[in-house]
Amino acid sequence: EKYVNTRKRCIEILEKDLKRGVEVNTEYLLKLYDSHGINPELVKEIFEKRGIEVRIPSDFYKRVQELHEKRRRKKEGRKKIVDVSKFKETRPLYYEDLELGEFDAKVLGILRKRYVILDKTAFYPTGGGQVHDTGFIGGSRVIDVFKIGNVIVHEVEEPKFRVGKVIRCRVDLQRRKAIMKNHTATHIINRACVKVLGDHVWQHGSYKDEEMAHLDITHFKNLSREELSKIEKIANEVVRKGLNVKVYYLHRNEAEKKFGFRIYQGGVAPGKYIRIVEIEGFDAQACGGLHCRNTREIEVIKIISTERVQDGVIRLNFKTGKKAIEEIQFRDKILEELRELWKVKLEDIPKTAKRFFEEWKRLRKENDELKEKLLKSVVLSSIKESDICYLDVDFIESMGMVIKVVNELAKELIGKVIVFHCKEFGYAVSRKANVSALEELSKFYEKVEGDNLNAKGFKRKK
Fold it and tell me: Is residue 68 part of a domain?
């Protein structure tokens, strides 16, 4: 149903553009995809039914990634807070040795009393959705690492060293390894999604830290349980197979010829030679991140949830390794507690939960009906005694119920004024000439926002 609704919204957008006589070019296709998540294949399908030819560039998705890359660079404007133009290129030790946890480096500069430039570093900077390393430089905590051009900047809490000193640095390797597992798993899940859902799937974004990760993909509907199960199964089969993860450099033309433009899942890599991360026989992407050497290092992948983040974009949240095992154990614990509480077999938990939910809905409906009847009774008995009534009805939690009762008793309330003091709000109605409901409500409530039709815009005076 959601897929149908999403497709319907997309078609409405396209038909409006048709009426406006929009020019169907590459720029237009990119705008539709980026702003509304409408893939060019759907545009071609809809427009060509109306006799309008649509040409999709063979490198369309490469251009999408270039667009995202430009946006990412713009967001990284914060890095201009320091001028590193006088510093030489930082030697990235993390590419030379993934497990280098301690190293000595020379302090080339300390900017604004907290931004440290070293001649070489094993601290990985934030990039491509992978968060930076943490640790210590000369006993001072590293809280952020980012790259400006080829210079790596370390944000450090209260540096306790001077420029020109050679100091000992320590990277939190345990944290890094957890992030590496999530990054390699991101590549695996992305490829698994393509295998299960189809070639229209493309990475829209990702994020990886030591706790968990998420992958955003282009897809027009929420994933079914069956699809999720297949994706997770394929991903964990890759983990169990223990496939080697190879990292090497290729000339851009050679890489594109060998693997196609799908290598640009994480954004377009700069330069003539690009860094390829290949999961042997399964996936290859241009990527500057840090990865496991073998998929078996990931241990296990657990997709914990999915959500639609915008039209045409689905997010998969997942955990790996120890965190995934903890997640599985946590879920097992909940299931066991439910089994013991309800005294049912594990396989009977879903139907038992459904039965309880249906019972809860029935009781809630009955409860609301009783409250509504009681409210009507209170109103009718009160207006017999006075034209202006102040009713304490703190058993009412829904403004909608008050409005419904007021509308149903419209005839009986002619010439009457009622102020309702409900559980969390006040509401007033006046059917009496020259008497303002707002003024009556203001005797007891002070305005926060809105008007007297937005009762939650008032709070009770002390």
Answer: no
